[in-house]
Structure formats: C-alpha cells, structure tokens
Amino acid sequence: MSGTCVIGLQWGDEAKGKIVDLLTLKHDVVVRYQGGANAGHTVVLGEETYKLSLLPSGVLTPGVTCVIAGGVVLNPAKVIEELNELKKRDVEDFDNLKISDRAHVIFPWHFAEDGAMNQSTSDGENIGTTGRGIGPCYRDKVGRSYAIRLGDMYRDSFRNQVEHIVKVKNRVLAAMLAGQPWEPLVARDIHAQYAVFAERLRPYMADTTEYLLDAVESGKRLLFEGAQGALLDVDHGTYPFVTSSNSSGVGIANGSGVPGRHLGKVIGVVKAYTTRVGGGPFPTEQDNEAGQRLRDQGNEYGTVTGRPRRCGWLDTVAVRYSARLSGVHGICVSLLDVLSGIEELKICTAYEWAGRISRQFPSHVDDLRQVQPIYETMPGWQEDITGAQSIEELPQATRNYLDRVSELVGVPVELVSVGPDRRQTIQVDAL
Ligand code: GDP
Ligand code: IMO
Ligand code: MG
C-alpha cells in the first residue's frame, strides 16, 4: 500500500498544509477529498507564504498531480482565484490539476443561506461557520433536488437547472430573511457568471474516481489531505458544532472513491496545545491570560476569516478519541515551538464527568460541556527550539512532553514541527 493520509486530530488548523507540502516530496498525487473553501492551509517556503483553500497543498511541488475529488464542495471562483495567484507568483506546474466532475458546486444561494441563518443550531446557538456556503451546499447534495455538480455545468440543461433552483431559493431566502432587506437572486446573471467559470475550469475537469483507481492500481503513491479536524466531523465530532463533511479519517474513502485497503498510513496532526474557531464546547479552553499567551505566541488568528482562535491546553482525551477514530498510525506534533518560554505546561489526561473519572470522549455536546478536565502539569522549557533538526537537539523537558503526549494518545510521535517552514520539521521515525 502506497497511500499516506494526513488528518487533523483537533478542531482544525493543526498545520496539515505544512505537513502535506512536506510529504508531497515522496508522493505522485495529492488529493483533497472533503470540505471546501472553509479550509485555509498554509505552506511556507523560505520567504514565501501560500494560503490554500481548495487547491491541494501539494501544488507547490513540481511534477505532482493535484486532485480535487468528488467529496469536495467546490467554489469555482475561489479555485480560479488560487490558480491565478499561483500563476502570478510563477509557481511551476501549478495547473497539473484534476477536478472531479462529481464535485458539488457552491452557488450564491449557498452563501446567502449560510449568512441568513448564520447556521445556528436548533437551540439558537451560533455554530460560527466560515460563511463559505459549505453546510447549505452539502445539504443540497444530500437532498438532491436543488444540487448542481461540476459535470452538470457543461450540459444543455444547466441553464434550466439554475432557473428552477433560483425560483425555489428566492422563496426560501424570503422566508429566512423575513423583515430584513435582501436582494433576490437573478438566474440569468448567475448562469452567465458560472458559464464563464465552467469554461475556465474545463481543462481540469475529470472523472477523478477513475483516475485515482488507475493511479493506485499502477503503483502511484497517493497523499490524501484532510481538511478541518476529526472533532469537526459531521458524524463523529462535537455535533452540531461541526462542519458538514466527514473530516476524520472515516471520510477518506467516501470523499475520494479510493477504497480503504489502498489508503496505507494515516498520520494525525496534533497541535501541541488546542485551538478552536467558532462555537461549541472546548473543555480545556483558557479564556484568560494563559490562552492569550498561546494566541500571541502562536499567532492564532483564522487563515480564512481572520477570527481570533480560541486557545487552550492540549486535550489528550479528545485527541486519543480522534486518533482511534481516524485509524492513526503515528502523530505529528506541530507548533511545539509556540510552547517555549511557558513555565508550566498542562495536559488534560482525563475528564471528571458525572462523578466519575473517565477517558471517554462524550458523544453529546451537553455532556462535553459538563466535563471537568483533569490536568497533569509538566515543566516547560525556555529554549528557542525553532532551529532543532533532531530529537536529540530538543531540551529534555520538550522530549518529556512529547513522550507523555505519545503515551496518552496511544500512538508514536513520528514528526515534530518547530516552525512554519518545511525545513523546521524533525522526522522521528522513517515514514
Ligand atoms: P491547517 O489548516 O491545518 O493547514 O493549518 P493553518 O495553516 O490554518 O494554521 C497553521 C498555522 O501555523 C499557519 O500559519 C502555519 O504557517 C503555522 N505553522 C505550521 N507549523 C508550525 C510550527 O511548527 N510552528 C509555528 N510557530 N507555526 C507553524
Ligand atoms: P482547516 O482545514 C478550523 C469550523 C468553523 C465552524 C465550523 C463549521 O483550515 O483546518 P463551516 O464553514 O465548515 O460550516 O463551519 O467548522 N471550521 C474550521 N475551523 N479550521 C478549518 O479548516 C475549519 N473549517 C471549518 O469555524 O466552527
Ligand atoms: Mg487552517
């Protein structure tokens, strides 16, 4: 099996983009298979920083094929913007790209619905979505009647589909936005705009399922790039404060069309502490000076929305759960350098829940809100570790922290990231 999968094990922004870029050097094809432009993956190469939302993070390595598979919800304007940006920056081979004709397309009504509801839960609490139309597009995909896939945009029926859907969506939006000013959608304009997008994307459109099956069968090495994090998984995450796709390891096969037996090794990316953007419970959150310090040292502001990320200590109850759920073979501990200078580090080892000490991650958010984290305190380190190239170069306290994380999560640490650059990575075991 020659596949590698990179999955975030927390609530997103674990540095998946950096790790995918690094691992791309050993692969032939890099695949995004779920989520959409709610993702913001950062790759730093020397002086250059690239922020990618839809293009796989392998796009900066010449000679690699990048695939946006059928499980992704596609904002065509955003892909085009990213392609234009890479062209402007003279990135070689950036258009070695295949986009699934099965990918569902995000239309203006999806943005409008995402904004109109602000996607609150049935209790009225705000999910705090990225506003990128992700939930409404996936809802229409599953509902089928008002959905358009990329492949539909090249057929004669496309214009009629848009007209039909716009009529319905204008009624839906009128009800959702009752009493508020809003502009009805105009089918003709939307069709004209998306026909231009379709032409621009025509060279990339492909049956990526067939392509990927051929690729694995012919021995190509595939790298799967998860978006979001396992705790945002629609089925297994902190529902309803989740995204609308299977962002844990369980989503790889269904989003890409590549069966599990070809998937190979799963690497879980774990930030050395915890962050979360948007609503929902977060047991180890530090809404205090300690959290602010993590935010400042880690520059924890959203890649997509710029929102300050909520910050807290590492929660190994949550990460152990998401590592088991995602079938992780090894973890990459990222942003470890951010902890330098903090005197005492806390790690959550268990929850006190309904009078019991437990390492079980509750399935209902109301229960997750009730848990009290039990912390172990470890001495921190003062040294700057951003130049370390091997485990031996790390201070003993840093190594102790890594060992303890590995022990609590139940999987070996295989990679350690000590800075945003590709070179600021320590390989612990041969991958
Ligand atoms: P992703 O969504 O999982 O790809 O992560 P993001 O790109 O949204 O957020 C990770 C942020 O941390 C980015 O700004 C990265 O450039 C940066 N980063 C990645 N690895 C490290 C690291 O080891 N140390 C530090 N200090 N920053 C890192
Ligand atoms: P990457 O791939 C962090 C969060 C949003 C919100 C919830 C639902 O960069 O790690 P959505 O727009 O998906 O309906 O929002 O999920 N969210 C992310 N948080 N990183 C992401 O992606 C995220 N994508 C979505 O903040 O709480
Ligand atoms: Mg991100």
What are the key terms here?
single chain; 431 residues; alpha/beta; four-stranded mixed beta sheet; 20 strands; 20% strand; globular; binds guanosine-5'-diphosphate; binds 6-O-phosphoryl inosine monophosphate; binds magnesium ion
Structure description:
This protein is an alpha/beta fold and 431 residues long. Helix content is 31%, strand content 20%. It has helices spanning 16-24, 76-88, 108-117, 134-143, 158-176, 187-201, 208-217, 251-256, 289-298, 316-325, 365-370, 396-409; strands spanning 4-8, 29-32, 41-45, 48-52, 65-68, 73-74, 97-100, 104-105, 205-206, 222-225, 265-271, 274-276, 310-312, 314-315, 330-334, 344-353, 356-358, 372-379, 413-417, 425-427. Strand 3 and strand 4 form a beta hairpin. Bound molecules: guanosine-5'-diphosphate, 6-O-phosphoryl inosine monophosphate (IMO) and magnesium ion.
The gist of it:
The protein is α/β, with parallel strands linked by helices. 31% of the residues lie in helices and 20% in strands.
